[in-house]
Amino acid sequence: MNRQTNYELLSGDIVCCTFIDGKLSVVNEALAPLYLDDFEEWVASRAIHSSRGLTARNLKVASGLSANEKSFETALRVNAACITDNYWVRLEGSKISYKDVSFEKYDGFFKELALGVDYTYTHYKSDECNPELTNIGGSDKAWVLDNNGDRWLYKRQPIRECYNEMFSANLAAALGIDTVLYELADYTNPDPEIGQFGIVRSRDFTQNKGMNLESAQLIIKHRGSSDNDILKNADIFSEWGIEQEYLNIKYLDILIGNPDRHSQNYGVFRCQSSGAIVGMAPNFDNNFAFLARDMEIDAFVLAAEKYKWKRPAVSEDILRGVANRMKSIEGFRNFDENRTVNAVIANNSFDYSLYR
Which tens digit of pLDDT belongs to each residue from 11-31? Predict the structure, then answer.
């Protein structure tokens, strides 16, 4: 495959776009990716990030690509298919079906390589279907199918980030905010100060749901907004009745000091059969929590006031309950829970008087 070739973009087995002689045509707008206007950019955006360095290069070589293969060609190696939606690309006139590219039975063959704990790529089969080529994000991560048929996403990161990720998710759950939950799957040393790594895992929240996860990236871009324009984004999401869920996620970001809520770190669910937006995706990816203060508070308060957002009750009892739950996990027993609890209390101390 190359950029001069003609392609079809499909949702499941339904053609929704064509890319012929360099021109994109949308033939089924209801099922096409939201606000798609650049085929090549969209395909390239689905490829593993080069920021993952040696891991990304090894995964490419193990799949029969060059170590420095461009993002467009990398994604096309697996027909631009990924696990969290049913979009994919094929050559015009090809007879292959979604079942041929969907990773339905992928069991985690590339797990060790994708997590950056194995650098010996020569024993991997280059013809093996590899969803890690379209597993985006900056952390080393891997998809695994367990013996019960449940799919999990494993992430390898510093043990402090594992703690931040899990504390944030547990806090969100305690406040009634829809969230992905994480488990500590492995760790090398429980000391939070010496830079050791751990591995967290979370269930694939799209599995068997009949829904596509679409990041907010193209939505925000097309509507002329930005990650920091909370009021405008709330206006956008209010068109689908999900502005409250959006504001819940932004409030959580304030509580946990999360500077990493870019538009690929939140998104919407779309029904695969109709294309309708059916909800906001749950909160996920909070490993960089507790790194920032005074985040976008004025913009948040304006949006919260306009949409009469109801503030969840954040009490010290709730925070201590989350902290004690974290303390009970063997890998986190040496962590100072007071540091995290006090950070949340401080972050929650801004003035809500504008919309009382």
Answer: 999 999 999 999 999 999 999
Six-digit token pair at 67? 């170590």
SS3 72: helix
φ and ψ at residue 182, rounded to 5 degrees: -120, 150
What DSSP character marks residue 293?
A: S
DSSP state of 269: E
Q: Dihedral (C-alpha) 100, 219, 265, 302: value to the nearest 10 degrees?
A: -160
Domain count of the fold of the chain: 2
132 shares its domain with 244 = no
Residue range 221-244, pLDDT digits in tens: 999 999 989 999 999 999 999 999
Is residue 158 included in any domain, yes or no?
Answer: no
Lookup result for tokens 């949409």 = 307
The verdict on residue 98 lying in a domain is no
In this structure, is residue 170 part of a structural domain? no
Could you list the residue range(s) of the whole structural domain that residue 259 is in?
A: 209-355
